[in-house]
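The following block was generated as part of the benchmark described in Methods. Ligand: adenosine monophosphate.
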Amino acid sequence: MFVDRAARIVFLGPPGGGKGTHARRLSEKYGISHISTGDILRARAGDGTDLGTRVQSFIEKGKLVPDALMIEMISERMAQGDVQRGFILDGFPRTMEQAKALDQILAERGTPLTLVIDFEVSEDVIINRLSGRRVCPKCGANYHIRNIPPRRDGVCDRCPTALIQRADDREATVRTRLEVYRAETAPLVGYYRDRHLLQAVDGNLEVAPLEKHLWSHIEAV
Ligand code: AMP
């Protein structure tokens, strides 16, 4: 008999909560796909098309890209072969409409979510993490000027590219992103709790101890 043991996980939590860092690490260690809608959108934002320019303007303002576009994007991604081995969704869903659409897409494939992790993080930690975050514009690796510094100052460890600060990590935009999170995304905590999928973790923790907690939740499913 076929036993489906793939982990299909959503990482929920505010910007700066550690979703991307941990999704990347866990996906590399355990061979499950990391699907970051922010990364997919950033790749489109720079492609010179009208759609790319529109996407870029939403991102730079800290606003959400419209649901219809996001749902189409995730539906295409879920049709790719690698997701059968499991996935971590980082940054999707962000609205109730997206959450319902995701349930439907996965139900049609007979592969429902197995776990939702809620990263609970204080606002001070968020501001500190985002203001110190630096990213590699080429490979997407994330660093923090104090917490996760690159080996060589200002240069990516993996591909020797100069690190940058994301435009939407500047303070005014961070405030908008937090407001959007509270209004649109935070209600999903209740949605997934009602479906008995939710586990909360303390997102204020440093990378190593938080990774241990995360892994224990993933293994327990
Ligand atoms: P992130 O890298 O997850 O912080 O996403 C960066 C930006 O991409 C967000 O501030 C939004 O503008 C956009 N974005 C990413 N995921 C979504 C989503 N699921 N729905 C709408 N907008 C999104």
